[in-house]
């Protein structure tokens, strides 16, 4: 039975994967699909080869857990009360086929060209404002003082959140669900349950407020289209949930992991403009959305040279697929001049990230603003002491869908604000 090769095992640790030491790791000839043990004694398939991952993202022989996960995966998704669960998990992320198409069509206009042009102007303004609040101090936490509030404010303003709801989002912890295979009753699962309930309550209140006072904003439009299409409350709130969290969380993780990479390669920071110009390579290299939720074979299926039986689960490791030496030359080298195409930073196929253009816009704006406005930027802790989001490293049983830092304390040369600091709009 195939197991992870030695190089693949090393690259599962995001700290090594993003460091120069990764250049010494060679995964040529290692299995592109392999099996890993889980805490309950079962095993799961893991796809790390580019072709295997790309195939599983498009093949009709694989389905999402809500569609074909069986009792075990129902328990994973449905450990909160039915209403709370249904208000979070019933988005296009967990749907296939016609249900997926309907839910994607429901969300798509919120990210249309006109909305993105509006978001670009808001993003530039809010990045400057957020940095005005810290630039004179010479110290900050780039997660809590910049990246997270910046991304939340851009996204909620774009979608039409009333200010009091943006404040509620900012008061919530960063969305950090339990690792994919966390055991029922574990502290991580209990924490995630409480956070899921708080998010569900917020989204329910938001929909109720928009029903009372609809406006010319994406949330009101989503509610109206859902009503016309006969979709229910859980499908509406789940759509709003994925539009919110999938837009702001990867931006924070991208900024923190990009700086982690660049600080270990000072020659790449000598020209901040080159780092911003190399955004596509940074996205490939950091892959903030590290893995997908499991998919399930619905028929006997060959994937990456192994045979999967109906009901077998497979985790698609996007970050390692973006390091496949069969697809990328010197894949573990960060080359800001690399021409990147067919990477899987935003997945592929029917589930290709609907918010890709918004995510790229926010990642570029955040990185450019920080490198421009905070000269002499350095971490105030050794890189090896930084605290990572759950599941960024360790055995597969601790795997989490995203990878990034919990906090990023930094120092820089104090700079006067570009304009008089004013209270944030929300």
Automatic annotation (TrEMBL):
InterPro entries: Cyt_P450 (IPR001128), Cyt_P450_B (IPR002397), Cyt_P450_sf (IPR036396)
Highest taxon of the lineage: Bacteria
A Gene Ontology molecular function term of the record: monooxygenase activity
Recorded family membership: Belongs to the cytochrome P450 family.
Name recorded for this polypeptide: Cytochrome P450
